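Before the break, one more example. Copy the sequence into your notebook; we will annotate it together after we see the structure.
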Amino acid sequence: MANTISDQMEKCRVIVLDIEMNGVKQMKASSSIDARYLFIKPPNFEALEARLRGRVGSWKGLCCG
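Here is what the structure looks like once it is written out:
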C-alpha cells in the first residue's frame, strides 16, 4: 500500500512535514504539489548554533567555528 504525499492529497488530507531546506527545494520543484511553507525561526543565534551542532555532520564547516 503506497503512502505518498500524492495519495494523501487525493484523500483531501492535510500533510505536515518537518524537512530541511533541500527538501523544501525539491517540494517546490514538483508542480504536482500545492504546498504551503512555514519557517520557524530560532529565538536567537545560540539556539540556532545548538540546533546545528546537534545534527551529526551536517553543520561542519558551515558556521560556528
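The chain has a mean pLDDT of 80. The chain has three helices and no strands. Try to locate both features in your own notes.
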